[in-house]
Amino acid sequence: MNTTDKNTKIDPIMKIVKITNLKQIPRRQQGFSLVELMVASAISIIVLLAASSTFLTTYKLKEQVKTRISYEQDVRNAANVIRSDMRQLADFSCMNPPSTSQLNSIFENAFSVKNKQFLSTDLPTASSSIAVKPVTGSKPLVLTYVSDKLVNSILSSKCQTNIDDEDISGAVYIVGTTNLDPDPGFYRINYSNKTFSAPQLVVRNVTAVNYHFDYDNHTANDCPSAASAAGSKLPPPLKANVTRTTNLNFKYEKPPVLIGVTLTVRPNGTNDNTTINYEINASVRQGEVCVSSKI
Questions:
Q1: 47, 115, 164, 283 - which has most CB atoms within 10 Å?
Q2: Helix segments in 127-208, DSSP class H
Q3: Domains contained in the chain, number
């Protein structure tokens, strides 16, 4: 029986045939094809654009929120200042209030003869005392009251006497521009000791201001008497009875019991026309009919 020798060598011809056949077998492709690279690049670009768009949108929203919060803080500060002035409006302590001619000598004929409210919206446009150029269509607001200096030093002997010019204080609110800032803003100018202060910017980028005035319609007969107030049984509180107007009404001898100030703000300045309205309401103690003007 013949056995195959393990050490028998392979025929060289057979070896060449086998190697040739191996070369004919298609090899597996290495790496990525051009099409795959193009698809991957396109997907990457789409993802990048989406991420960038999301980031920009988020950033813009964040900036808008920050801007709005900043303006709301400015408006809150403005509300505190306005309400402080309104509480003092028409309050001249125990002194005789100033006459219309006396106020006109200070505020350049801003008060008409019929105006007994110590409040005006008619400051001349070309006022030499106010270093603010008003925005067309926006009225100023002029408030007058007694000076803190007099209140802190007044003697009873001076009560019921005429108040001097130097003892009159006031404030002017106005929307306009200044020589230093061409963008409109809401300014406050203080008047004290016969001198107007430099304009103070209260809220920036304000393009307009509107007012409303609530007047107390009660009469002196509606007010509780001193005897009833001193009795054991308190009189019932008066029911609200007010009339709202958009202009000062000089048929009333007292100032409005409440004044509303609506500021139109352009948060982005001159970049776009987007506006936001902020309303500030301030009560006026001297506007209540049943409150004595000599306190």
A1: 115
A2: 148-151
A3: 1
